[in-house]
Amino acid sequence: MYFEGIEKNQTRLFIINSLLELLEKRSYNSITINMIADRAALGRRTFYRYFKTKDDAMKYITEQLMDQFADTVIRNDSHGIEEVTIAYFQFWEQYINILLLLKKAHLLYFIEDNLTDLIIQVAKKVKHIPTNFPAEKLVKLYEKHHYEFSIKLAGFWKATIIWCEENPRKSPEEMAKIITALLT
User: Fold this and answer.
1) Which DSSP category does 167 fall into?
2) What is the pLDDT at residue 83?
3) Please, are residues 163 and 175 in contact by the beta-carbon 8 Å criterion?
4) Where are the beta strands (DSSP E) in 40-111?
5) To 5 degrees, how large is the angle CA 138–CA 141–CA 143?
6) Within 13 A of 31's CA, how many CA atoms are on the CB side?
7) Quick check: 17 and 3 in contact, CB under 8 A?
8) Structural element, H or E, at residue 114
9) How far apart are CA 18 and CA 35, in angstroms?
């Protein structure tokens, strides 16, 4: 099981784990809602109670991953770039099977296309951005620094993809030293 212990709703857990298990053997485009429901030992209608489409299920998976990353940052009490980077790579070490599966299935775009929003959600959850921070102020900050933010975020993500393919992979501490040196 991919998300054992994370997802509290048992039915949703069956659905998302079934989708990920099917991805091990099939292309994303060939997987149907019926296949996911059958694998989860649920009815098709039950699937639709939780998700409108399999894309919605994939988006949910990425949101849960980022929520778990935020929990790792909180658990580690990470504040500076080096500490957050260590937490980030510790998190991905824990979920390396999902990261590699999404890469193999050409589904990283579910993370990449929403990376800015996902990172902002993480920053709010870990209180690096106050939850009551006015949205219009956040938009203005993003507009002012969007190139810098985008370049750093894209570079960080690309480093993650390179790292996940390494054998052996560098430790979270080694990655933190590399990335901190590049960003400071």
Assistant:
1) S
2) 92
3) yes
4) none
5) 110
6) 23
7) yes
8) none
9) 9
Contact 142, 90 (CB under 8 A): no
Q: What is the structure's pLDDT at 37? A: 97
Residue 178 CB neighbour total at 10 angstroms: 14
Which residues lie closer than 8 Å to 21 by C-beta, 6 or more apart?
2, 39
Dmax (CA) for the chain in angstroms is 52
Residue recorded with tokens 């203005």: 140
Tell me what pLDDT residue 9 has: 81
Instruction: Give the dihedral sign, CA 52/58/62/65.
Output: positive
- Asked if residue 88 lies in contact with residue 40, where contact means CB atoms within 8 angstroms, the answer is no
Collapse the DSSP code of 139 into the 3-class scheme (helix H, G, I; strand E, B; otherwise coil) and give the result: helix
Instruction: Determine the length of the chain.
Output: 184
How far, in Å, are 56, 72, 176 from residue 120 at the CA level?
Answer: 20, 16, 20
Could you state, in chain order, the average pLDDT of each consecutive group of 10 residues for the chain (184 residues)? Answer: 69 94 96 97 95 96 90 87 93 94 95 86 82 77 80 90 96 96 86
pLDDT at residue 42 in the model: 95
Global confidence as pTM: 0.86
DSSP 8-state assignment for residue 67 = H
Helix (H) or strand (E) holding 178: helix 172-183
Distance CA 30, CA 144 (A): 42
